[in-house]
Prior knowledge:
By secondary structure, this protein is of the alpha/beta class. The protein has 12 helices and 10 strands.
Amino acid sequence: xxxxxxLPSGDKIPxxxxxxxxxxxxxxGEAVKTALKAGYRHIDGAWIYGNEVEVGKAIRDSxxxxxxxxxxxxxWNTFHAPEDVEPALDESLTRLGTNYLDLYLIHWPVxxxxxxxxxxxxxxxxxxxxxxxKLEEMVQKGKVRNIGxxxxxxRRLQNLTANPLKYQPAVNQVELSYWNPQxxxxxxxxxxxxxxxxxxxxxxxxxxxxxxxxxEVKSIAKELDITPAQVIISWHVQRGTIVLxxxxxxxxxxxxxxxxxxxxxxxxxxxxxxxSHKPERSVNPDWGVDIWH
Length: 293
Ligand code: A2P
């Protein structure tokens, strides 16, 4: 299985990352250090996760050189107005203690009106090009090396890329799991040179246990003498996506990094099982805008 993918910029993005959403303060630093020791070179974070200071400190303390680590952060909904983008990015850079990001994503296809609330700016939500142009400027300034989006569906991707972009979105980070495998989006992304990143790859908190008990997953794990989590994480990479398992448990952090190729028959069996039920999202915030349409 590929240990990295090459983006349009030529940068190589490692295929398995440590996700740090809901990794609580006091634990996330240890998880990052365990991950870097285990061989991870990719940490997927965001401003809204509220743990960038601890993540940054752990990275600096790890002894692994900054240039060898891929760091992703995300622009929160409150900061989509063009004049707010650079200050938001600067805050993430300061918190992380670095002077550039490898990847910066628009976290949601939803712009809040300026201020503290969650009132939606429908114009900027439907036409995010001004926000994107500012991200492009951040690339030109050297503050970020690659830019992308998160939680965009095909319509929203097409809507954004209909503009005369200097840089195409390099990735789209979305929920991908056994319960929500999104084969159409994956197919579309592949034919449009867009890499998908799988968040909540194990099923996100409440469904992880259920995912690891799926009969197909269990039987493949037994056949290959690996754990059910490793089956699922390997399946994601074999589908051609980046995978971002979250864990603050050291043994699981180590376990999740070991991906192996699944025999074609096992892969097909799992793909088919995942597609055979009605897709269900674990993550679907209600901001009074239909995110998925
Ligand atoms: P914890 O962080 O306490 O180790 P997802 O990446 O799909 O969002 O899933 C994250 C959840 O899955 C977390 O609750 C995490 O728990 C748990 N988890 C992560 N890796 C494993 C694993 N290898 N086996 C079992 N549970 C796991």
